[in-house]
Amino acid sequence: MAGHGARDQISVNHVEAPVYNNENGSEQKQCQGRPEDDHFDYSQRAQWVRAALLGANDGLVSVSSLMMGVGAVKEDMKAMLLAGFAGLVAGACSMAIGEFVSVYTQCDIERAQMKREMKNSSAGGREIGGSSTSHEDEIDDEKLPNPAQAAVASALAFSVGALVPLVAAAFIKQHKLRLGVIGAVASLALLVFGGVGAVLGRTSVRRSCARVLLGGWLAMAITFGLTKLIGSSGLQM
């Protein structure tokens, strides 16, 4: 009986041990592979995606609407191109300055918040009785957005978006066809910008494209309609 019991114990250990080891091993491998995929913080790239896409979309819509507005009252291609180029330069400078001030203000707010949290943490450590060192001067600025880089990125993105309608209109002499091409090219570019933003941010591509496209259409239609209305009311251009 003792020998039989020993054989049973050996067989049980021989059968069950590999099963549990394999299951634990597979679960451990699965758990090790999940954090990299499921816990990637897409908000880290949100600052740059927002600045770049906002600049490109603003440049595209602003210059396209400006050229459509001028085209509503004047058929001269030179006037449309000059208006578009002026819009490109003015808009790029405005975007750069606005983004620089905005991001710099955000950095100041976040830096002040970090100092307050470190100060409160140090005060709490002293109350407990432990030794605490002040870290107010050890704030990691690398984690904060860079105002200069954001400004340059916004200006370049605006210029890229603004070049789309300018290039599209530069080689078309017929007035109505030129307006149609500007609208079509701007619409295609809006879809691309909306899709790229959605892919990088892991959001709905359909919603992003529809939102950006409808907004651009609305801006161009309002600019064209109001300029046409003012031009037809007797104002000499």
TrEMBL record:
Residues 19-38, 116-142 are annotated as: Disordered. Keywords: Ion transport, Iron, Iron transport, Membrane, Transmembrane, Transmembrane helix, Transport, Vacuole. GO terms for cellular component: vacuolar membrane. The keyword S-adenosyl-L-methionine does not apply. The chain crosses the membrane at residues 48-67, 79-97, 150-172, 179-200, 212-231. Belongs to the CCC1 family. It is found in: Vacuole membrane. This is Vacuolar iron transporter. InterPro entries: Ccc1_fam. It catalyses: Fe(2+)(in) = Fe(2+)(out).
